[in-house]
């Protein structure tokens, strides 16, 4: 009798997901009006306290899209190259955050090695900034660097729509996350190349060391600052302001209060 082989694991949207990944974002476009479903809008208390995950439907007027912000979240000060990268889209009235990451099941924790072997599905998650930023600065007690990018509104629009289109695809055609080639940084580089062909090479060292991604953007002139590099991170670290803002309605304004005086323009 021939030996039995284990069935190959296929990507799926039907698993016992952690509440933070329970829903998949998807959107529709009608003229300049973008409707996004399953926007995560959770509020967090003190580190370690329980919270209820909240999902919203929101509408965004693309004609009022102003700029894009790039976010770097180092996990440990002792190893700053290990980090997570996010985006936030600034509209005249609101901010919309985006994160590509491993979609975790209940009881799972992230593993770089497992992410190399098809151990996680890929999640495209959209959310309110008071969720995506305060979760990291206040609940997880991480530093977070928030950078304005030099990106024209029409390029920002095209980038956002690329992200939404891929999120829509993932709702019916899930695929695996990969720690090097389909992660938080490589996904953003891929979509940037779709909008601005040749913006990034096929492979960046920042794909495996996301904590260096802001230096890559700085060297390309994409970070909207005139500061020398050795002053940049301290200037754009918003952890203290996010801690002070808490869950205030003006959270996004408060964490940006002094950024305009930090060499941008």
Describe the structure.
The protein is an alpha+beta fold and 265 residues long. It has one domain (19-261). It has eight helices and eight strands. It has helices at 112-116, 129-139, 153-172, 184-195, 213-220, 229-236, 239-245, 251-255; strands spanning 26-30, 33-40, 55-61, 65-74, 83-91, 95-103, 121-127, 145-148. The strands form two sheets. It has a five-stranded antiparallel sheet with strand order 7-6-5-4-8. Helix 2 (129-139) crosses helix 7. The relative contact order is 0.16.
How does the SSE layout of this entry go?
Blueprint: E1 26-30, E2 33-40, E3 55-61, E4 65-74, E5 83-91, E6 95-103, H1 112-116, E7 121-127, H2 129-139, E8 145-148, H3 153-172, H4 184-195, H5 213-220, H6 229-236, H7 239-245, H8 251-255
Antiparallel strand pairs: 1-2, 2-3, 4-5, 4-8, 5-6, 6-7
List keywords for this structure.
265 residues, alpha+beta, 5-stranded antiparallel beta sheet, globular
Percent of residues in helical segments? 25-40%
Number of strands: 8
Unreliable residue stretches: 1-6
Radius of gyration (Å): 18 Å
Helix- and strand-based class? alpha+beta
Question: End-to-end distance, in Å?
Answer: 72 Å
Apparent shape: globular
If you average the pLDDT, what whole number results? 92
**In what range is the share of β-strand residues?**
15-25%
Summarize this structure briefly.
With 265 residues, this protein is of the alpha+beta class. The chain contains eight helices and eight strands.
């Amino acid at each position: 009798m021939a030996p039995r082989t284990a069935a190959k694991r296929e990507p799926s949207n039907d698993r016992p997901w952690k509440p933070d990944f329970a829903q998949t974002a998807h959107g529709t476009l009608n003229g300049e009006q973008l409707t996004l479903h399953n926007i995560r809008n959770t509020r967090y208390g003190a580190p370690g306290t329980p919270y209820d995950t909240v999902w919203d439907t929101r509408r965004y007027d693309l004609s009022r899209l102003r700029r894009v912000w790039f976010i770097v979240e180092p996990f440990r000060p002792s190893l700053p190259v290990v980090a997570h990268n996010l985006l936030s889209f600034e509209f005249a009235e609101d901010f919309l955050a985006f994160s590509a990451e491993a979609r975790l099941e209940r009881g799972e924790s992230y593993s770089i090695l497992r992410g190399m072997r098809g151990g996680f599905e890929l999640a495209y998650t959209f959310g309110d900034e008071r969720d995506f930023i305060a979760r990291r600065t206040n609940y997880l007690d991480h530093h977070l660097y928030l950078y304005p990018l030099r990106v024209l509104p029409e390029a920002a629009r095209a980038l956002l729509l690329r992200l939404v289109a891929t999120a829509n695809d993932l709702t019916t055609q899930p695929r695996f996350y990969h720690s090097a080639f389909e992660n938080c940084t490589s996904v953003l580089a891929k979509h940037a190349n779709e909008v601005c062909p040749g913006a990034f090479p096929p492979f960046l060292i920042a794909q495996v060391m996301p904590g260096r991604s802001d230096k890559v953007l700085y060297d390309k002139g994409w970070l909207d600052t005139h500061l020398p590099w050795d002053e940049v991170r301290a200037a754009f670290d918003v952890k203290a302001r996010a801690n002070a803002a808490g869950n205030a309605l003006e959270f996004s304004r408060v964490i940006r209060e002094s950024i305009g005086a930090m060499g941008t323009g």
